[in-house]
Amino acid sequence: MISRYSRPEMVAIWSPETKFRIWFEIEAHACDALAAIGVIPKSAAETIWEKGGSATFDVARIDEIEAVTKHDVIAFLTHLAEFVGPDSRFIHQGMTSSDVLDTCFSVQLVRATDLLLADIDKLLEALKRRAFEHKDTVTIGRSHGIHAEPTTFGVKLAQAYAEFDRNKTRLLEARDEIATCAISGAVGTFANIDPRVEEHVAAAMGLKPEPVSTQVIPRDRHAMYFAILGVIASSIERLSIEVRHLQRTEVLEAEEFFSPGQKGSSAMPHKRNPVLTENLTGLARMVRSYALPAMENVALWHERDISHSSVERMIGPDATVTLDFALARMTSVIDKLLVYPENMMKNMNKFRGLVHSQRVLLALTQAGVSREDAYRLVQRNAMRVWEEGKDFLEELLADQEVRAALSEADLREKFDLGYHTKHVDTIFRRVFGEA
Question: Which CATH fold topology does 1-93 show?
Answer without folding.
Answer: Fumarase C; Chain B, domain 1 (1.10.275)
